[in-house]
Amino acid sequence: MDSKALLAIVLSLLLFLAWQVYYGPSQTTQPEKKETTQTAPPASPQSPQSPQLPTTALPSAPPAPVNLSAQKTWTISDSLYKMNIVAQGARESSFSLLQHRKQVEPDSPPMQMISTRDSGFLPLAIDFVHHRDPEWSLSTRDYTSAAPAEVKINPGEPPMSIPFVLELPDKVRVTKTFIVEHDSYAMDVEIQVQNLSAQKLTDQLGISFYFRPFSEGQSSYNPSQLTFSTKRTLHNFQPADLKPESLPKPPFDWVAYEDNYFLQAIIPLVESGYQIVPQPLEGDKGIIRTVYLTEPFELGQNESRSFKLRLYSGPKVVERLDQAGHNLADAVDYGWFSFLAKPLLVVLNWLYSYIHNYGVAIIILTVIIKLIFWPLTQKSYTSMMKMKKIQPKIAQIREKYKGDREKLNQELMLVYKTYKVNPMGGCLPMVLQIPVFFALYRMLNAAVELRHQPFMLWMNDLTAPDRLPAGFSVNLPFLGELNGIPVLTILMGVTMFFQQKMTPSSGDPRQEKIMLIMPVMFTFFFINFPAGLVLYWFINNILSIAQQYWINRNAT
User: What is the 3-state secondary structure (H, E, C) of 105-132?
Assistant: First the structure.
């Protein structure tokens, strides 16, 4: 088998693996079952002043959905977002991203980060863990605030504190303060508990967050997951994987619910003494409750204790994530090829800043990459042509020494040396380009900068599969529903076919047939790939055809 056929097989296997990983059915790895008598999360590490309270349960979940239209609401807005806080529990009922749309249509409403709002499970629900009487409920009672109904965060202003207060007479006063600043998706939330009783108050707080996929019709190319970051190592979990024995332990850099483009992150601001406990809610498919458990506390009369968290709700833009600190920018993760994908994204954004069309920017980036690899590609094509010329002589040697493998290898090496041909010279230069392909795949599939960005004609979202609306839908095996014609993908397959026809072959009819099957296989693989990646491969094929034409024309 010559180097060209070997490369075809390698590419096919790698692409099949990528297709299975990113577009195949979701696979869940079940953790090994362990015998345990533990029925709840282990107790948090205790500070010397903290009482030793066993954590035997989480706070109760909020009751049935609330009528949001009947709630008193405060609005906090910035150039980036608009957040609504309802009186009941001083919880977030809405967090709209003003610079991102929910759907690709221009009149689509802003992206909504509180995806569980219709279910009544609103984030930032605070409750005591051990005081479970309804009269001690902190998440269902109305808070008050001296803040105006609408708060605008203006440029140049210092961070703004917006407190909400709940007082249970002769029991406890709870103050929840939102600390916000202009031009940032990150904010701090400080919770102060003050004991108003003559008796000691011994308990701990549970702060509940509720997550569900941000977009309806969750697709395999944009999966949602819960991610724990421990010492800059990411641990990703699907709902079925959230078993106590499989979860990492604190301290955490952050814990976030995320998809390719957006995330809601909980960022602890203390090194120890807390837990973050996730659990899928029974009867509510897709909803994950994630509870931040403070360390236990004991308060005498009029004593108080404060707990502080940092939150981030917004797009996965590195510069914005960096503003939140605590290594949150690690959430932009392109796997093994991050070292290539991140610089490619920087170059792509730089090109876009001048061109204002990400499709054109991808074309220019493709040309740049092709120029960088031009010497390697030319060496590969030249080596293939040399190999083709000596194929008859190699066939004679194989026939003559087919019973003597050692002599066969010696004679083949002599031929390669005589004609100055490297048998792997046509394969290795092209294999070096495979990491760039996968880096571009990960980047073009997961860069929020490309989300809903148009190119031209029917291509209005470079992160979605290429589809020309045709008024019909077809279900294909392994590929799912096909709504429209993948025109760009078909053009990519056609150009790949012509490229294969122009590329020097070994002269073996069987290998030539294998190579001509490659365009069909690639077209199949690429049908559900992002349009931006298909555009890259299509332009790369055109440039390769031009290069091969130039080499063939100047060959002696």
Answer: CCCCCEEECCCCHHHCCCCCEEEECCCC
Which tens digits make up the pLDDT trace of 42-99?
Answer: 333 333 344 444 444 677 666 666 777 778 999 999 999 999 999 999 999 999 999 9
Q: What span, in angstroms and rounded, lies between the C-alpha atoms of 25 and 480?
A: 11
Contacts 24+ apart (CB under 8 A), 67-75: 68/93, 68/117, 72/142, 73/149, 74/145, 74/147, 74/148, 74/149, 74/150, 74/151, 74/162, 75/149, 75/150, 75/151
What pTM did the predictor assign?
0.80
* Length of the chain as a residue count: 556
Domains of the chain: 70-213+270-308 (2.70.98.90), 340-554 (no CATH)
Question: What are 183's two structure tokens?
Answer: 């031009």
Give just the sign of the alpha carbon dihedral 10, 13, 17, 23: positive
Residue pLDDT, tens place only, 376-403: 777 777 777 777 777 777 777 777 777 7
Q: Measured between alpha carbons, how far is 15 from 436 in angstroms, rounded to an integer?
A: 13
d(CA 340, CA 436): 7
DSSP assigned state of 45: P
Long-range contacts of 130-133 (CB under 8 A, 24+ apart): 130/53, 130/202, 130/203, 130/204, 131/203, 132/60
Is residue 462 within 8 A of residue 450, CB to CB? The reply is: yes
Q: Which of 424, 426, 425, 395 is nearest to 411 (CA)?
A: 395
d(CA 524, CA 273): 52
Q: What is the spatial distance between Cα 35 and Cα 17, in angstroms, rounded to a whole number?
A: 35
The position carrying tokens 């070096």 is: 432
Tell me the C-alpha distance between 365 and 234, whole Å: 30
Q: Over the range 323-346, which residues count as b (16 or more CB within 10 Å of their CB) and which as e?
A: bbebebbbbbbbeebbebbbebbe
Token reading at 527: 């049908």
